Structure formats: structure tokens, C-alpha cells
UniProtKB/TrEMBL annotation:
<protein>
    <recommendedName>
        <fullName>THIF-type NAD/FAD binding fold domain-containing protein</fullName>
    </recommendedName>
</protein>
<dbReference type="InterPro" id="IPR035985">
    <property type="entry name" value="Ubiquitin-activating_enz"/>
</dbReference>
<dbReference type="InterPro" id="IPR045886">
    <property type="entry name" value="ThiF/MoeB/HesA"/>
</dbReference>
<dbReference type="GO" id="GO:0061503">
    <property type="term" value="F:tRNA threonylcarbamoyladenosine dehydratase"/>
</dbReference>
<dbReference type="GO" id="GO:0061504">
    <property type="term" value="P:cyclic threonylcarbamoyladenosine biosynthetic process"/>
</dbReference>
<dbReference type="GO" id="GO:0008641">
    <property type="term" value="F:ubiquitin-like modifier activating enzyme activity"/>
</dbReference>
Length: 265
């Protein structure tokens, strides 16, 4: 049989080719680490690693998502499978890789692109655009690039690949940082909710117990501080709802999973 690759590193700059490689690997369950657009960017502090759907302010990532969706819909139509909202084909299909960084992780910059594609010169028009492409059937027009950005993104990609191959993988922090005001709001909501619960259930405390009710529910002070909120949201849950998988932009709240235990990180 065909030897399974450990992982595939993608640094292709052409949307159709990039999408074709990702879809091919996804169908064969081969992990991909992909680099998105470095052109028109200059801020190294805006470089992130995430799943493809979380890649924001990246035109290449947007175009690749759209291309993958188109390929999935075309494949589903040809095979007679049901196309589902958001996931491409029934039961998620291979297109589910856009939401799963264990299948497809991307390195991208969330910095807003301020440049545009370079204009076509008179020389290119006279001699024929096809004579100026680096590879046949790939785009000719390019975006201006600050040389440090492709290197930084490439090093981030290489670091992730080497750590995984060495058996020491790391878990990237969520790209969308939770602002201080939002962290404070979520923390206060949790405190208020727990205080109301404590006031309501205090009359039902077990005899001789300060924290457990007759139904087994724990009541008492929360064991979380404001700094824990960012860890819980960004690092542990990647700024996603633990139930629905929805991201920031929806109404997210902190809540205890196990009501028999205190609210702890």
C-alpha cells in the first residue's frame, strides 16, 4: 500500500493549487500545516496558528475556504450526498478540516492588508502575461512583501512541524485575544450567578456541611480570578463555545460543568 505521510507542509501561493492539495490530504486523513498570506503585512506580533476558519483578515485564507467549500459542494452533488449547512457534505465530510486544527493548522497574520496587487506593466502586456508567471497556470500579479514576514511565518510553521515530529507538540493560543473589558464582564457574570445560586441553596445545606447541599451541589466562593478567564477562553477552549463550537461574536459565558465541584480553572 501507499506509505502514509507524517504530515504535509503547504506554502503554495496559488489558491486553486493550494485548495486541491488540502482537499486531497483531508480525504486521505493526512495532517496539513499550511502557510497563509505574508504579502502586504509587516507586524510580527500579529502572526497566529489556528484552524482555517479562525484565520481572520487574511485574503488568501478567505479564498482557500471558499475554494474548499466549492470543491466539497461539487463533490457532494456528483456523489448524490446531502449538502449540509456549513460542513459541506453529510456527516461533515472532509471539509470539516477547516474547523479542526488537528487536521489542518494554518499560520496566518491577522494584520489588515494595506497594499494591493501590483499593476500590470506595459512590458508585460506587450510580451504576453503568460511569459511572466513563475509556473504555468499560476497568477502573475503579486503583492508587495516585506522580506521578514515570509521568514517569520515559515519559521513558525517549521517549529510546529518539528515539535510534532519530535513527539512534543504544542497547543497554539487562540488567535482572537479576549479584551480586558470582556474578561471582566465574564468574570463578574460568573460571580453574580454563583452568588445567586449560593443564596438560593444555602437553606438546603447538608447538616454539618458548609458547602454541599442535600442534592450534592457545591455552593461557595468561586476559585477563579480574572487572569484565569483568559487562560480558560483563549488557551483551553480557543475562544469557542464548549457545547456548540461557536466562536467569539456569539454570547459566551463561563459556567461550571460539574455542579458537585467548586468553580475552578
Amino acid at each position: 500500500g501507499v506509505k502514509q505521510w507524517d504530515l504535509v507542509i503547504d506554502a503554495i501561493d496559488d489558491v486553486p493549487t493550494k485548495a486541491n492539495l488540502i482537499s486531497y490530504c483531508a480525504k486521505l486523513d493526512i495532517r496539513v500545516i499550511s502557510c497563509m498570506g505574508a504579502a502586504g503585512k509587516s507586524d510580527p506580533t500579529r502572526v497566529h496558528i489556528s484552524d482555517l476558519r479562525s484565520a481572520s483578515r487574511d485574503p488568501l485564507a478567505t479564498a482557500v475556504r471558499q475554494r474548499l467549500r466549492m470543491l466539497a459542494k461539487k463533490e457532494a452533488k456528483e456523489s448524490g450526498e446531502k449538502i449540509t449547512n456549513g460542513s459541506g457534505v453529510s456527516n461533515g465530510g472532509w471539509i470539516s478540516c477547516v474547523d479542526d486544527d488537528s487536521k489542518l493548522a494554518v499560520v496566518f497574520s491577522s494584520e489588515k492588508v494595506v497594499a494591493k496587487l501590483a499593476d500590470i506593466t506595459d512590458e508585460q502586456k506587450e510580451e504576453g502575461m503568460h511569459n511572466f508567471g513563475a509556473v504555468d497556470n499560476m497568477r502573475v500579479r503579486v503583492l508587495p512583501v516585506v522580506g521578514t514576514m515570509p521568514a517569520i511565518m515559515g519559521q513558525a510553521l517549521a517549529a510546529m512541524a518539528l515539535c510534532e515530529l519530535g513527539g512534543k507538540p504544542f497547543s497554539p493560543v487562540g488567535a482572537e485575544r479576549v479584551g480586558r473589558n470582556i474578561r471582566h464582564k465574564l468574570y463578574q457574570h460568573l460571580r453574580t450567578r454563583e452568588k445567586k445560586l449560593q443564596d438560593k441553596l444555602t437553606p438546603t445545606l447538608k447538616e454539618g456541611s458548609e458547602n454541599y447541599t442535600t442534592s450534592g451541589t457545591y455552593i461557595g466562593a468561586i476559585q477563579i480570578d480574572p487572569d484565569d478567564v483568559e487562560y480558560l477562553m483563549a488557551e483551553l477552549w480557543k475562544n469557542k463555545c464548549a457545547v456548540s463550537g461557536s466562536r467569539l461574536g456569539t454570547v459566551l459565558e463561563l459556567y461550571r460543568w460539574d455542579m458537585t465541584k467548586p468553580a475552578t480553572p
